[in-house]
């Protein structure tokens, strides 16, 4: 503890120990910091610092306060960075006094000496300010008070520079340098140095390239420093200076510059992917951290690399992903085909034949495209990965058709398993259309639809062959008079259904629904052949009742089997109504209603139906057909569920 006997000169300070009754030092007032950016100029006074001096003993009395006053020379010679603001104030005051003196009362020699002194002082001040700024991002060395004082000094000097610009005489030589530029260039140099030599060295990792290790270190440095700026450095600046965005811009430019140099030399596939991830994923994630997002405007800075540089990197990455997808899918299809050629049956799960072809491919597709969307920063660009899927799906179709064509003992189990794959593929194409380019999605869906139809045709063909004897009796007088004819048909269908078991539940339901449609088509096709003639109202009413009864039985039977094709009931019901009606206007209305619901109803179908009613004249039949034709032209409708187009009539 310094004693009262020590002189002020010994410690480089002047001591004023007198005070008034309020405890404030006599002969002066405390220094009030000026407002930044154009605030009032400080009064012409030295730095005032209050210290406590005691006799070394604990005293219950309040310690006596003493005031230490620092001069400009003492601040600069002692390199007291915590009082740079005060030093700047004193320099500005001396500068104003010097240039305010009149030449008549102030010798040129004295003026020159004072200029030289001020020039030296300003050089010292700039050196101390730069020294303090260079410690801004050194948590272990930075004094927040010193940085705040340095920033205030800079602001005062910027204000003084602006004052000189408004005067008619030339500014002093030390005013030729821009303090704002001094601040900005110092921080820019600081950031570049830290990014060139990150404080955290890259870990030794054999799987990480030198490039990846360097980029990771720079990224870590950037993140840590920006968090420090937001948490600590920001309080040393005014809100108008927006120091957080300033630092963010410096780091963005520096990081971008380093990455541009690397990208220009070309990269291997792994490093290419890594660089894209930093540009589009890792770097944005840093700026989106809550602590930074509220202070830094990331949108203004844009991406780390320009589109011109990113484009070849994206093409390289996406092309590599396409090749990996093609290789993987080709291998999956080849393995499935090999099992079939060797006579193996597909795997069974819960009694159903299953194939993991679609599941494996879909998992890869979903993960690959979703990841690529993040890596290239654009989900639409990532869709290009699936372009090879068009050819690969056609390869799957070729394999599928070969199974049917060769008709081996294992063919039916494989086709049942393939139905599950087809459904899975169609679901992902419909529900996750964002993964695919539209032309890819459309072509693949068409291929899959064709595959499903050929599978249904292959599996149902034996069923229809077994039902042929029952079909032959439909639409005859036996059918009209003997209910057992239709019951025999349903019994025959039930027997054939045993061979359709084995597909997964949803696909089995679709297969049963398809059979439901085809049986209904065959039923109506046989009826429209005209083997039975309905000569009068009584026979026509009997036909109406028979069709209604058959429709209910058909729906009940296939409904229990799992069919969801309820819409078929409407067709047969309306056909029955046409046969029952006797008045021409009523017949016209019912036919129009049938045609409106099913626009693929043609005049040939109507003619065949009306010919069953032998009591309708040719002219009336023509009127009904014309009414239908006129109505369909007005509607210009397309059949969403084709039915009549499957029935060929003469």
CATH architecture of the largest domain: Orthogonal Bundle
Percent strand: under 5%
Overall mean confidence score, pLDDT: 86
Number of domains: 4
**Secondary-structure element pattern, one letter each:** HEEEHHHHHHHHHHHEEHHHHHHHHHHHHH
Percentage of residues assigned to helices: 55-70%
Largest sheet: 3 strands, antiparallel
Instruction: Please give the number of β-strands.
Output: 5
- Distance from N terminus to C terminus (CA atoms, Å) equals 122 Å
Q: State the name of the first-level CATH class of the largest domain.
A: Mainly Alpha
- Structural classification: mainly alpha
Provide a quick synopsis of the model.
The protein is mainly α.
Please render the helix and strand layout as text.
Blueprint: H1 8-11, E1 14-16, E2 47-52, E3 65-70, H2 72-77, H3 84-100, H4 108-133, H5 144-165, H6 179-196, H7 210-231, H8 243-264, H9 269-287, H10 290-293, H11 298-301, H12 307-341, E4 347-349, E5 352-354, H13 357-375, H14 379-382, H15 389-406, H16 411-431, H17 438-471, H18 477-481, H19 484-496, H20 505-528, H21 537-561, H22 568-580, H23 584-597, H24 603-611, H25 618-635
Antiparallel strand pairs: 1-3, 2-3, 4-5
Helix pairs in contact: 3-4, 3-5, 4-5, 6-8, 7-8, 7-9, 9-12, 12-13, 12-15, 13-16, 15-16, 15-17, 16-17, 17-19, 17-20, 20-21, 21-22, 22-23, 23-25, 24-25
Note down, in words, how this protein is organized.
- The longest helix is centred in the middle third of the chain and has 35 residues, at 307-341.
- This protein is mainly alpha-helical.
- Mean pLDDT is 86; it is low at 1-69 and 102-106.
- Strand 4 and strand 5 (352-354) form a beta hairpin.
- The radius of gyration is 46 Å and the shape is elongated.
- It has four domains: 8-167, no CATH class; 198-305, no CATH class; 312-455, Tetracycline Repressor, domain 2, CATH 1.10.357.50; 472-646, Tetracycline Repressor, domain 2 (Orthogonal Bundle).
- Helix content is 64%, strand content 3%.
